[in-house]
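User: quick one, fold this
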Amino acid sequence: MHIKKNMIVRVISGNHKGSEGKVLYIFPDVNKVIIEGVNLVKRATRPSQDNPTGGFVEKEAPLHVSNVLPVYKGNATRVGYKYLDNGRK
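Assistant:
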């Protein structure tokens, strides 16, 4: 996967196109990432000891990894891989 945790990435498609943020979590089995402050959704919560009143909580939802690019020197950059003659990536 071309995205790692704590990288700064830019969203290149969808409703949040152009937004930037830091990668908080990666889900490699489903190729999704959670980006800080991007793709916020509201979730209803029941009252609990942590939140005695309940109500709505905003949290980040995952985005597919194909919709984000890493930011390098202020520009979104495509990442490519190639194999060397000795077999290393």
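User: anything notable?
Assistant: The mean pLDDT is 91.
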